[in-house]
Amino acid sequence: MSGVMTFLTRRRGGRFWHWTDIVSWLWLAGGLVIMFGPAVWLVGSSFKTPAQLAEFPPTILPYVSQQATVEGHDKPLTLYSVKLPDGSTKVLAELRRIGIVAQMVDPKAPDDIVKVNIANREPVREIGFATENYTEPFVHFEFLRYLRNSVFVTAMATLITLLTNSMAAFALSKYRFRGRDLTMLLIVGTLMVPLSVILVPLYSVVSAAGLLDSLWGVILPTVATPTGVFLLRQYMLTIPDELLDAARMDNASEWQIYWRIVLPLAAPALAVLAIFSVVWRWNDFLWPLVVLSRKELYTLQVGLNTYAGQLNVQWHFILAMTVVTMIPVVLVFVFLQRYITSGIAGTGLK
Amino acid sequence: MGRITLTNIDRAYGKMKILHDINLDVGDGEMLVLVGPSGCGKSTLLRLIAGLDRPTGGRIEIDGADVTDVSAAQRGLAMVFQSYALYPHMSVRQNLAFGLENVRMPKTEIDARIAEAARMLEIAPYLDRRPGQLSGGQKQRVAIGRAVVRNPTAFLLDEPLSNLDAELRISTRAELAALHKRLATTMIYVTHDQVEAMTLADRIVVMRSGRIEQVGRPLDLYNAPANLFVAGFIGAPRMNLLPVKVRSANGSQVHVEGPGGLSAVVSADGTALKPEDDATLGIRPHDIELSDGGKGAVSAKVTLAEALGPETVIHATIAGDNKLVAVLKRQDVEAQDAPISLTLPWERMHLFDAAGLRVASR
């Protein structure tokens, strides 16, 4: 605990708080709330029942009403904290409600019925988790299938991305040929073309290739990323050519140079690209939505969309499944953030 | 066998010519040192021999076979790079094994060769370390070891000592010489350091601006430099070069006069020099002696005296702005206003004509 306090009150030095200490503290605290507030709220809300979600004002934590089994009643009754006419408060269980009057009993004396104005009672609540938000989609919806599709798409797309992009980057960084710089320029130039512009032609191509309604139709158009080629090329430029020359003297073929020298040495950049690719492919929504029309092929993000109907949005399921879909991305960031920061610092990319 | 023959080698990058008509014959088991200032094309020439680069003209032969269009891997040569170029993600053992695995050598043979090289170069304790965990000298040994295990026709070494500190450089130089003696394999060694060249070479090739200036045994180059460039490049401190005028020439002897009352008669067989021609007189710092006037003595003003112990290096000027460096085997010389008298022995002088070519021989 004292360690935490030391951390929180850490200053730049000197005997008193400098104004920069206060500004940076406020800045960081504000940043923490802005960055983590929505995430915490999301996770908290994902455990709320639909009724509680509709409540106003909203709460961060999920609550459930306390219930008690009272003698002579089969079902557990909801407990309320009641303000009695004599000014004291007491915890009573509600039997039924008629208009603005509630009939209540003391759980210890189940025979005396007390009539209470509903304005004078307040539910006794404790923190409780509506875990059915999570279990229901897994049991009754095809969530596991969506999860499997998403994992397949993400894994395959990332593997192919790494392989093709690193090959392109190798050629563009280590070989001299006519038109090399133009090729690089063209590849980087495609960064300026957003998906929405090429959506329709891309759809025609995928359709003509017979890849509509197939996971490969989701995977293949996304694997060649200009960002990836650029990132890897910039990194490979830093690998000294003498290493490649040494490998050539060592009887290595060009493939072996790529596979055994350049790829292992580009591992940090590959890790960065792998992380980016996983996050991109995992969070993809528009393109899978366009390509996939059979429900059993849906990826998670598209699957989530099915909880939002035209008339009824099942927020509790959406929130819970959003949390589930976030988990892999969060794990990636937790364990690989070292690579992410070094990659961003090294390439100036985001 | 490791005989390498270069015939009329040219190399140009676009319009820029890097190498001009190089002809060179490297004998089997020879240690040939390519030396020259940076940018003279010596490293390019080595890369051409290695096969990492192709000449724009000419032929390269190894043991009589034309390898001009053969890939680096097929030439059977091994190279030690200036930066060592060890594969940083592999252990020392894997570094040594990489080239052998690529030719599908049996595992037992690979292990035997690595063990032998490790013993010879004393790198056995580091075999399982990564290059990043080695000191400069250890990396250097591994780089040489990677070449040795290949059992190549010839070794190509590109400034292998330039990344080492001075002390280590001297000891590694000696080890390289010993290694060459033991392996008796052809070595082509590139350096810009003329001391390395002098100590290691069987023959030295002095290069400048893509041309070979002179080829010869180290002492031949030192004693009889073919031109002004070689004269200035070989030997440390560098040879003193003084502008002189020819007074008379009679076919076997040339009488020249220079600044500070310098007057000398240098033997030169069959020279084309005529009276009143401009020429350059060269004399090595170690050949200059302190004197008390007399024949051939010049009067010089000492501006700086560096006492090194066994000898004193003096920087002097004669007749105003002609600088002269002399190495005297005594300690009692100091910078002073009063001029001193220096003797330049005639028989140790080198004479170069206006084009910079040698005319006098000792």
UniProtKB/TrEMBL annotation, chain A:
- Provide the GO biological process annotations: transmembrane transport
List the membrane topology term(s). Answer: Multi-pass membrane protein
- Looking at the UniProt entry, the stretches that span the membrane are 21-43, 151-172, 184-203, 215-236, 257-280, 315-336
Q: Any keyword Hydrolase?
A: no
The entry's cellular-component GO terms read: plasma membrane
Q: Which residues form the ABC transmembrane type-1 domain?
A: 147-336
Is Membrane one of the keywords UniProt gives this record? yes
| Subcellular location, record wording | Cell membrane
Family note: Belongs to the binding-protein-dependent transport system permease family.
Its protein name is Carbohydrate ABC transporter permease
UniProtKB/TrEMBL annotation, chain B:
Query: What InterPro entries does this protein's entry cite?
Result: AAA+_ATPase, ABC_transporter-like_ATP-bd, ABC_transporter-like_CS, ABC_transpr_MalK-like, ABC_transpr_MalK/UgpC-like, Mo/tungstate-bd_C_term_dom, NA-bd_OB-fold, P-loop_NTPase
Identify one Pfam family in the record.
TOBE_2
For this record, an example GO cellular component is: ATP-binding cassette (ABC) transporter complex, substrate-binding subunit-containing
GO MF terms, alphabetically ordered:
ABC-type transporter activity; ATP binding; ATP hydrolysis activity
Q: Name where it's found.
A: Cell inner membrane
Membrane topology, record value: Peripheral membrane protein
Residue ranges of domain ABC transporter in the record: 4-234
Its domain of life reads Bacteria
Q: Provide the primary localization.
A: membrane
- What SMART domains does the annotation carry? AAA (SM00382)
Q: Could you list this entry's UniProt keywords, alphabetically sorted.
A: ATP-binding, Nucleotide-binding, Transport
Q: Name one GO biological process term.
A: carbohydrate transport
Give the UniProt family note. Answer: Belongs to the ABC transporter superfamily.
Q: What is this protein called?
A: sn-glycerol-3-phosphate ABC transporter ATP-binding protein UgpC
Q: Which organism is it from?
A: Mesorhizobium tamadayense
**Lineage, highest ranks first:** Bacteria, Pseudomonadati, Pseudomonadota, Alphaproteobacteria, Hyphomicrobiales
Its gene is ugpC
